Model the fold of this input.
Amino acid sequence: MKSFRFLRDKYFFHPHECLFFLLGALMLASEIWKQLTLTFYIGGGQYNWWYFPFQLCSIPMYVLLSYPWIRKRSVRQTLLMFLMCYSLLGGVAVFADTSGLHYPYFPLTLHSYTWHILLICIGILAGWIFFRGFVRPEEPPKVLTHTLRPFAGSTCLYLACCLIAEILNLSLDHLGTINMFYINPDYQMQQVIFRDISLVTGNAPGILIYIAATVAGAFFLAALWTEIYRMLLRNT
Done:
């Protein structure tokens, strides 16, 4: 009982910490079900590395599970910024081309749509928590300053994930088809718009353009969040 109270008071004191962890646990449980279903029901017992859970839209699951245990404020702000920009971007962008959401087994398709809609909701929630707890209303001119450092941290996290994804792509290529973050140079770029760009520039430059465009899109969302907060401050 004492250990439970200790965990509650130290790691789950705020409601959003509990909510984030529960959402992360729910996503993890559903991801385990997805992997088992793909392996045994669809794949006949053979694992398909294409579905290894390390895509941009998979990272929020790990972020949500780790968030309550991280006490350093600056790191928390980085994680929130990642959710409200990069994860939100991933959740929205997938609906530009929904072909990757469809599976031969309808429950998997439903899971995929639900997952990405949940990413959008989590991104919005993270944005609300970020500005509510980080920027003091009496300092509206400093909103952008408060935003830039966490954005830089979240971008470093995104680029680190890209590096890990590329290491996985090149290391596990011999085991089967794998294309984490869709940046495996052994496969032609598949993302809408960027697949056409890569046909002109070549695949490797197309991948770099795709990564740069993702950072630019996330920065646009960070700027949009900042402007929304400023508008709310002006109306209060």
The first helix runs from residue 2 to 11. The radius of gyration is 19 Å.
